[in-house]
Amino acid sequence: MSDAPDEGPGSPRLQEVSDGVFAYVQPDGTWWINNTGFLVGTRGVTSVDSCSTERRTRAYLEAIRSVTERPVRTLVNTHHHGDHTFGNYLFPGATVVGHEGTRAGAIAWGKPFDEPFWTKVDWGAVELEPPFLTYTEGVTLWVDDLRCEVRHVGMPAHTTNDSIVWIPDRRVLFCGDLLFNGGTPFLMQGSVSGAIKVLEEVIAPLDAAVIVPGHGPVAGPELIDRVVGYARFVQATAKAGKAAGLTPLEAAREADLGPFAELTDAERLVGNLHRAYAELDGLEPGARIDLVAALDDMIEFNGGRPLTCRA
After folding, report:
1. Does 3.60.15.10 match the CATH number of domain 13-222?
2. Is residue 192 over pLDDT 70?
3. Which of 68, 173, 230, 284 keeps 20 to 30 A from 272, CA to CA?
């Protein structure tokens, strides 16, 4: 718990997904264990996201130094969640870039916490460092002559402030938590319907050859359909549950996960159903719901135990 493994199958690993473009994949991709990545230019490094804990972010920085001694000059945050932003403060020379909502969300979340919702985590000496160069729609980043399009996706999906980093010349996409590979997608702070729309109308048309998801192994475009399928399953489960007079927790307990049973962090279904129920009630995508009630129900689904976090 709370340590990035040094050796073995659970160790973080670098994967060069295109010339000078690296994914940093952290198994097992469960709660607070995210992926990052970076691009190496002649004058410096551009990083996509940081990590949740001090130790994990320092391990990521060591991985960058194993490739280049050039400094990290730019750090892009794909959204405000702490597994992608808490480590920002360990990039003191970098311009931290993010959507306006990412800055606001990181400030509103504040310092890391775990109990009573998650098992205890050694966060380290985290200092809050939200993006200080912000945009509303997007910005173009250049790594030497390589164009990187940083785009807000235009509507709530995983959160209300999701952005992607798209490298069109390489057909490489860093998509943050719009996509999970092997883990249950989490839409409680965004929108189930919005996630489907973003994935089908924004992400799929890019025709990416390589996708670096926010959690789990590097994938290809086939991952998009899998996540869309899960989101549609959530919608169908919510519709049936409401018609039967079930609460989100009751609907989750009765649900047949089918092909999604193999996904980690199954308790996220409860939070996703809280969001889907709100949308069926007419609440706008991304509008506030009772997150504490949803998290409490997730814990109840988990046998009354805090959610397991190995960060």
Report:
1. yes
2. yes
3. 173
